[in-house]
Amino acid sequence: MSESSMKIKKLLYDDDDIFFELNVDFSSGNCNLNINIYTDNEELEKLRKGVVEFSNFKQKEFLWTTREDIEY
């Protein structure tokens, strides 16, 4: 069984390096997720903190929402 992993790659960014597109790749033995998202440094810091706390068992679950959830 393969180990779980998370990879984040910066694809493109604005001239001020504030807003950028990321490719996020999550893999585990049971599933894979590969998605491109647009975000900024502030939201990326929230993701980093959440993943660290979750992986250190400080949280039982972690949900990262970067925009208002709107159903179309």
Question: What Rg, in angstroms, do the CA atoms define?
Answer: 14 Å
Strand order of the largest sheet: 1-2-3
Contiguous uncertain segments of 5+ residues: none
N-end to C-end Cα span: 38 Å
Q: Would you count the extended β strands for me? A: 3
Structural class by SSE content: alpha+beta
Classify the beta-strand content into a percent band.
35-45%
Report the biggest beta sheet as strand number plus sense, adding barrel if it closes: 3 strands, antiparallel
- Helix and strand sequence: EEEH
Q: Helix count, per DSSP? A: 1
State the helicity in percent bands: 10-25%
Globular, elongated, flat, extended or rod-shaped: what is the shape?
Answer: globular
Mean pLDDT equals: 82
Secondary structure elements and pairings:
Blueprint lengths: L4 E9 L5 E9 L4 E9 H15 L17
Antiparallel strand pairs: 1-2, 2-3
